[in-house]
Every structure is written in structure tokens, then in C-alpha cells.
Amino acid sequence: MSNRSNERILFITGRLAEPALRQVSDRLQERWSLDCEITVLNVTVAALMHTKLIANRLHLNEQFDRVILPGWCQGDIRELTEKFGVPFERGPKDLYDLPTYLTEAEREPPDLSRYSIDIIAEINHAPQMSWPEIEALAIRYRDSGADVIDVGCIPGESWNEVGETVRRLKDLGLRISIDSFDRAEVEQAVRAGAELVLSANSENREWLSQLDVEAVVIPDTPDDWESLEQSVEFYRSQQRPFRIDPIVEPIGCGFANSLQRYWQARQQWPDLSIMMGIGNLTELSEVDSAGVNFLLAGYCEELGIGSVLTTEVINWCRSAVAEFDLARRTIHHAVTRNVPPKHLDSSLVMLRDPKLHNLSDKEIQQLAAAIKDRNFRILAEGEQLHLMNAGGHWNGTDPFEMFDQMLAEQGSDIEASHAFYLGYEMCKAMTALTLGKQYRQDQALDWGFLTIPEVSAHERRRSEESQDE
Fold it and tell me: What is the domain count for the chain?
């Protein structure tokens, strides 16, 4: 930010946002020595501004280096730049993000395009699925970041359609592995183009090593290290391609010892490729899977484990592939640069938000006093909900009670559509209050990479009005 500390910056805002913006502006000037000015246009809500309105009402009597508009401002800002001869830009949608927006604008964003861990995503119990179901799941896995699609078969059964299924998946441009100990299934899949077989041990290594395919070598039982050593030496003697998986076990069933086996494998075989079946942790731990995926990605990256096997069977793992894809990129950036994986990407912060901007009681009272119209403003601040307009200010933790209080004082002449809107927004505000998330009226709550953008109420109105014209 040093080379921009002498810039003169003009902020454009509306009447309600002015007090908060002045506090942020003062902080920018004190902490970063920015030269900031504020122009308040005769508009109540800054989010309702349009570039045409700004062009008509703004008068620049001084010279500025940049003019920053509210993030929700609509219209073509290039017209403003041309008219006033100074660069105009939209700031963040939340004015409390202005310090980050201004002070980190020139910071090089982290390169999260690279990774070193391949994702093998398993279609669990594929023989029980129809082809459309298999195709849809495979495409979803691919689009979520999977590098290889694993066709998971059923132990004790032999699936006659495995070869045709692998061929059809290959026709979609997918890389395929087969998860089976059944010789007929494996041979069909390999002939159809499967490039990896899960798995090989003392029971099947003799015939499996004769196939032109890479295998995942595992111990006969998770704690039988000697059997893993024997199978590794066998595959080396056959000069066949393979990777190893010492098998990670679920928490409560030997988890810590199994992690130690991966470390031992890397020390004993520094040249071998290693895979980890992380589904044993994500599927068998009743907790949101994102954090589990992130920690396992860190362990795999630091230990040089080059592939993981995962799936999305149980509901808390329904986005596990995309989670690990985001995690492996962030972790790769952090490990290769020897920095903590913090302030690189917040896509996996879903339950709560990376940071909160809390209003003080004084700021809330100032905002309530400044409202001069009947439109409702909703806040989730200070462990309470706030509903306010020119007719009053109601706060509490029960939205039903607040709504009843408001009706008792203002009358019941609220249109059904407006009541629905208030209920929807109050529901979002209550969710934010419960989880410790940032609530901003007319904006979607931030669920990380799972966020679904919302069209705000005023945007919908503008769209309807433009269609009527």
C-alpha cells in the first residue's frame, strides 16, 4: 500500500451509511495515511444508487485520484469516468471491507491453480446403479475436481457389466480405476481401459501382476506390516507399476497408529508412490467433512502422498470431492512456500465466516434514528435481531415476538409479499445470529464455496420495472 498512501480518494454514499463510512474512513486515514473524502448524495440507501443518478447529482469541485462507489451501485461506471475525468470503481458490497479492499488491492493473489495430490473419487456400489446414475455421479465428481473415477464393485459378487461401464466412462473422457478383488471383474475393466486396480495383496498379486495395469498394493490386514513389505518386494521383482496404501483406519479403530504407518512407509520407501483412502475418516466420522479433508490434505502434502481415494456416500460428505480439491490447492501453496494456510482462500470456511463486522450499540441507535421512511432495515448484531424503520425500533432474539410487537405498534396493513420478504430476511438474520455469521440485508449468507448468490429485493424490482418499460 506504500506507493498509494498519498492518493486522494473520494467515497460516494447515501445518508444511512454515512456514519459508518466516516468511521471506516477515519481508520483508513489514521492507520494507512490515506487521504479520504466523503460525498453524501441525497439518497437514503447507498445500495439503491445508479450511475445515472450519480451523474446527475455529483459535483466534483476538487481533484481526486479515485472515486469509490458503493459495491451495489448499478449501471455503467465507465460513463462516470468519462464524464468526470477520474477513475470510478465499485468498492466492496460491505463497506467494512474497505480497509482490506484498499490495502490489499495490490497484493499478488495466491496461485491456487497447482496441486500435487490426485483425487480418486469412488462410485460406491456401482453394480446397484443404473447407467444414467453412474454417468451423472462420474461427471459430478469430475466437475468437482476428481482426476480419476473409481468404479466400486461389491465384494462377493461378480458384475458382468463392469467392462461396458468402464468403456462408456472412458468415452466420456474420464480416467478410470476399478475397486475389486474379483478376477473376472478386474480383467474386464482392464481390457476396457481401467488404468488402476484397487487393490493387490498376497491373495491376488500373482494373477493381478500379469495384467498391464497399475495396482495399489496394501497389507493383508491393516496392522500386518510384514505382508505389505512382501507384496512390495513381489511387485518390484515383477517390475510392474504400483503404488502403496498402508490403510488409514477410522478414529477409535487404530487411527493414530495408521498415520504412523504412512510415515514409516515414506521413510522406508522414499521412492514409492503412496495413496491414502481418506473415506475411512470422512465417511466414518460424524462431523462436517471439510475440516477433516483439510487436515488430511496437509498430512498428505507434507509426507508426499500423491493420491487419495474418497467418496460422497453419507450426507455430511456430500461435497467431499470439491472440499479436498480446494484443500489440496491451498495446502500445496502453503507447504511449498513454508507459510500457514491462512488468509489464502476462505472457500472452506462455511459454518461460520472468516471475520465479522459488529456494530456498536451507539452505531445501531444512530442508524435507527437516521431512518426517515417506512422501509424496514434488519440487523443481526450484539446477539440480537433488530427490526427498524421510521416508526420504531424492535430488538430481541425471537423473530415471532418482534414481528407481533411491530404489528401491534404499526398496524397490520402489511402486504403479503412484504410480510413474506420480512420473514425470509428475519430467518436469514436468525441463522446468522445462531452461527456467528455476518448478516447483510438482501445479501446471501456466506457459505464458502457452497454459497448460492441471491438477487436482492431492489434488484428484482429494477428488473421488473425494466421489463415493463
Answer: 3
